[in-house]
């Protein structure tokens, strides 16, 4: 979540009134499961394909909008499943329009955040729209610089709650593409909607492993949202057994490791998980992952002023990552309300980058996107609780 923007627009608050969901959500089903269930209900396979496309390709908002289906069949679906898993409680867009952040209320009142980041083409890469999604309400891992970590763990999100965030952002992104087309700023072939998904919102994806993998398979489906595995990034605090398990999934997704320190003493100060999976064990797992998948690993390194941002620490990190096919993202911390941390300035971040370069480790400095709308992980929920008394 990068590049700063200026003013702070007031949030538009929509009254949340979601009824507690008694029926299962259709969004929780894999494609195979949906097909077999609809066949059991007496429908033909092509009907299941139609329903799937209506939900994930056309991103229709309700069963009633599925006009290709008979009324009787739609009624049957309505009696069996709920449709939407999320109710929008807030939607903010940054002053520079690059970033939007939604706060969603779940059926049991939990609040989660989803971010949409827009990147213009830089000559090498085409325009991108990246959805940053949550996997848990809260998080149990307690990293001290993270607003979500400070809120504690509430519960895992269901598959439907995870994919619904991408569906919501797909609607927003497509509507913008279409508006631009109407203004002649975009051609029809340019309507892409969401192009990338990062699991970097609230929660630890690998602590909700099964649902995250199932959600990735839904996002991946070519007749649905069609987000290619290489355009999906899962970020983890470093849960070693799950990283090793992920290596066996034969998914071509990107893996990002939140490292944030070059040694155990520094890492344990801000990341309690380091006591369970220390740095050496984590890096060993990364080597195994890279060997098994042939994929480059991304390391995230939140720069905390005078804590983990010296050139010596950069060199230590360079030595630690030596021989690993990787890329480091350097992110000056987005200070949270409770946290004592300050951001490293750009000059110090560049010096840190220089230290890594001495060891041949490529890196990018990423400035925070959407600071004016509390786009940092868990921060909008905090603000919403103040505003809504939620
Ligand atoms: N739990 C996962 C994914 C969600 S957090 C993980 O920790 O990787 C996504 C990223 O945001 C992580 O790299 C996390 O360390 C980073 N992050 C958390 N709080 C931050 C803050 N205040 N400023 C900048 N980055 C932050
Ligand atoms: Fe959880 Fe990630 Fe925040 Fe750590 S940084 S508390 S793992 S969400």
Please explain how this structure is put together.
The chain is α/β, with parallel strands linked by helices and 390 residues long. The chain has helices at residues 31-40, 45-57, 71-80, 147-151, 159-182, 209-220, 240-247, 264-270, 279-293, 311-321, 346-357, 379-388; strands spanning 12-13, 87-93, 99-105, 111-119, 128-132, 136-138, 153-156, 196-199, 232-236, 254-258, 297-303, 326-332, 363-365. The protein has 12 helices and 13 strands. α11 (346-357) links the parallel β12 and β13 (363-365). α1 (31-40) crosses α2, α7 runs parallel beside α9 (279-293) and α10 (311-321) runs parallel beside α11. Residues 1-21 have low confidence and may be disordered.
Any key phrases for this structure?
alpha/beta; globular; two-stranded antiparallel ribbon; 11-stranded mixed sheet; binds S-adenosyl-L-homocysteine; DNA polymerase, domain 1; disordered N terminus; binds iron/sulfur cluster; 13 strands; 2 domains; 12 helices; 390 residues; TIM Barrel
Secondary structure layout plus pairing:
Blueprint (H helix, E strand, L loop, with lengths): L11 E2 L17 H10 L4 H13 L13 H10 L6 E7 L5 E7 L5 E9 L8 E5 L3 E3 L8 H5 L1 E4 L2 H24 L13 E4 L9 H12 L11 E5 L3 H8 L6 E5 L5 H7 L8 H15 L3 E7 L7 H11 L4 E7 L13 H12 L5 E3 L13 H10 L2
Parallel strand pairs: 5-8, 8-9, 9-10, 10-11, 11-12, 12-13
Antiparallel strand pairs: 1-2, 2-3, 3-4, 4-5, 6-7
Report, as a whole number of angstroms, the end-to-end distance. 25 Å
Using only C-alpha atoms, the radius of gyration works out to 21 Å
Shape estimate? globular
CATH superfamily of the largest domain: Aldolase class I
Q: How many strand units?
A: 13
Q: Write out the strand line-up for the largest beta sheet, numbering strands in chain order.
A: 1-2-3-4-5-8-9-10-11-12-13
CATH class of the largest domain: Alpha Beta
Q: What would the average pLDDT be, to the nearest integer?
A: 89
CATH topology group of the largest domain = TIM Barrel
Major sheet size, sense and barrel closure: 11 strands, mixed
- Structural class by secondary-structure content: alpha/beta
Tell me the strand percentage band. 15-25%
Any idea what the CATH architecture of the largest domain is?
Answer: Alpha-Beta Barrel
Question: What level of helicity do the residues show?
Answer: 25-40%
Order of helices and strands: EHHHEEEEEHEHEHEHEHHEHEHEH
Please tally the helical runs, counting DSSP H or I stretches of 4 or more residues: 12
Which ligands occur here?
Answer: S-adenosyl-L-homocysteine, iron/sulfur cluster
């Amino acid at each position: 979540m990068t590049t700063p923007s200026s003013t702070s627009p007031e949030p538009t608050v929509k009254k949340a009134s979601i009824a507690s969901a008694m029926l299962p959500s259709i969004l929780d089903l894999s494609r195979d499961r949906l097909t077999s269930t609809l066949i059991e209900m007496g429908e033909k396979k092509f009907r299941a394909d139609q329903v799937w496309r209506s939900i994930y390709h056309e991103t229709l908002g309700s069963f009633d909008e599925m006009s290709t289906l008979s009324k009787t069949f739609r009624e049957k679906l309505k009696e069996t499943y709920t449709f939407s898993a999320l109710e929008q409680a807030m939607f903010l867009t940054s002053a520079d329009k690059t970033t939007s952040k939604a706060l969603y209320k779940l059926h049991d009142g939990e609040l989660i955040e989803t971010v949409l980041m827009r990147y213009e083409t830089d000559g090498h890469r085409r325009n991108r729209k990246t959805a940053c999604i949550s996997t848990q309400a809260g998080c149990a891992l307690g990293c001290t610089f993270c607003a979500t970590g400070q809120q504690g763990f509430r519960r895992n999100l269901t598959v439907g709650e995870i994919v619904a965030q991408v569906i919501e952002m797909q609607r927003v992104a497509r509507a913008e593409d279409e508006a631009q087309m109407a203004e002649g700023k975009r051609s029809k072939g340019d309507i892409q909607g969401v192009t990338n998904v990062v699991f970097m919102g609230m929660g630890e994806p690998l602590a909700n492993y099964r649902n995250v993998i199932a959600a990735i398979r839904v996002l991946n489906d070519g007749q649905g949202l069609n987000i290619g595995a290489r355009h999906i990034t899962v970020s983890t605090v470093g849960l070693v057994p799950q990283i090793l398990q992920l290596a066996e999934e034969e998914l071509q997704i990107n893996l990002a490791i939140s490292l944030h320190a070059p040694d155990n003493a520094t890492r344990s100060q801000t990341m309690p998980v380091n006591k369970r999976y220390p740095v050496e064990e984590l890096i060993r797992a990364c080597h195994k992952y890279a060997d098994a998948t042939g994929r480059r690993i991304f390391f995230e390194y939140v720069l905390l002023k005078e804590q983990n941002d010296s050139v010596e620490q950069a060199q230590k990190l360079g030595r630690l990552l030596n021989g690993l096919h990787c890329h480091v993202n350097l992110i000056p911390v987005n200070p949270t309300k409770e946290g004592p941390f300050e951001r490293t300035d750009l000059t110090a971040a560049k010096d840190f980058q220089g230290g890594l370069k001495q060891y041949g480790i490529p890196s990018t400095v990423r400035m925070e996107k959407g600071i004016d709308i509390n786009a940092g992980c868990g921060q909008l929920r905090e603000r919403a609780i103040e505003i809504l008394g939620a």
